[in-house]
Specification:
358 residues; mainly alpha; 3 domains; three-stranded antiparallel beta sheet; 5 strands; elongated
């Protein structure tokens, strides 16, 4: 069923970004439903907008026909209606969007002849800042997501030096179009990469001073990472520059709800050799101090053992205490016929007095 949409191809003017058709899928709903949407420049609002063209339901393959077991073609009425709405021939683009739903046996026979057309990259000179048609640069959250998806690194030191040919994917698209693009790309991540992906995308490393926070987040305290995540998550939710068409800020967008679930339902990769080396380095450089030892003898007992007044022992320095100890040790040492228990007690008292002078 074709839906009424606000886009009018007569609004398109030369020099403006071409309207872009894309395949969208539900984020949280099961089973997954698909639809064709249009991302276009709305000159009256001076921003990019989204409109839905067609609800494909949960089976986009219904628009695919197979004349034989070696090829396919799209429903002619389906192609004609969509092309009329957008004002140009969209059959090649529609074939690219529907390609994932083609019968696998036919795919294998056609993959050598079927070459999906990709969007023509924008011309940009080296060193020139990339800007969308509305004058805005790619959002830093989008750049960090793209960097991880392409390079798989939590170290975001080079995120803003990515090649322009990569960053052009982030320009001249509505927010929904971009989120659907990332939704598809994230589907290629492995389960153990999801938490690292969100750690990098939300720049959680900026909350930590440890040198290894860039590349080994699993070595950081989990409760601190969670606190940093919630902090950045709330900032992104309230970022009006990021959300182009959003009007209700009292409810979380489904795209953010999904990230919230993924973060708390996933974990960092298991500790590897690099992580163990980091832990060993940390342990070797810890500033360890033994707990302060409490006095076990009262001043009165010390005075009795040394046969000196409490005031004398209190004022004596380390040298004087050592002299008193050696003098008493001559009489109490077992080798000279002294009492072993009294000698041990004298030694304990001597060490006690020395500690008190530190």
């Amino acid at each position: 069923m074709f839906l009424k949409n606000p886009y009018n191809r007569a609004l398109y003017k030369a020099g403006e970004p071409e309207p872009r058709i894309y395949l969208a899928r539900t984020v949280l709903r099961q089973p997954v439903h698909f639809s064709l949407r249009l991302s276009f420049w709305d000159s009256s609002a001076n921003s990019f907008k989204t409109c839905q063209l067609l609800d494909l339901g949960d089976s986009p393959e219904q628009f695919i026909h197979y004349p034989n077991d070696t090829c396919f073609h799209l429903d002619e009425d389906f192609v004609y209606q969509i092309s009329q709405i957008c004002g140009r021939d969209l059959e090649p683009e529609l074939e690219q969007l529907i390609w994932p739903f083609v019968d696998p046996s036919v795919k294998r026979k056609m993959e050598h002849f079927f070459h999906p057309r990709s969007a023509k990259p924008m011309n940009s000179k080296r060193g020139k800042k990339l800007l969308s048609f509305d004058g805005s640069a790619p959002h830093s959250f989008d750049q960090r997501r793209l960097h991880f998806l392409r390079f798989g690194s939590t170290d975001q030191g080079r995120v803003f030096r990515m090649p322009h040919r990569l960053q052009t994917k982030l320009l001249n698209r509505s927010r929904d179009d971009l989120e659907q693009y990332f939704l598809e790309e994230e589907g290629r991540l492995r389960e153990h990469e999801l938490k690292s992906y969100l750690y990098a995308a939300l720049d959680l490393q900026s909350h930590f001073s440890e040198a290894f926070a860039r590349s080994i987040p699993q070595a950081l305290p989990p409760e601190k990472i969670e606190a940093a995540f919630l902090n950045e998550f709330c900032k992104l939710n309230e970022d009006r520059q990021f959300w182009q068409e959003r009007t209700d800020y009292n409810r979380l967008p489904e795209y953010l709800i999904r990230y919230l679930i993924l973060f708390f339902d996933s974990s960092f990769p298991r500790q590897n050799r690099d992580h163990q080396q980091t832990r060993e380095f940390m342990d070797d450089h810890r500033q360890f101090r033994w707990p302060e030892r409490k006095n076990t003898m009262e001043e009165e007992e010390l005075s009795s053992i040394f046969a000196e007044s409490e005031e004398t022992l209190r004022q004596a320095d380390r040298q004087e205490i050592t002299r008193l100890y050696r003098q008493k040790a001559k009489d109490l040492h077992p080798d000279t016929g002294g009492d072993n228990e009294k000698f041990v007690r004298l030694t304990d008292a001597y060490e006690e007095l020395l500690r008190s002078k530190d």
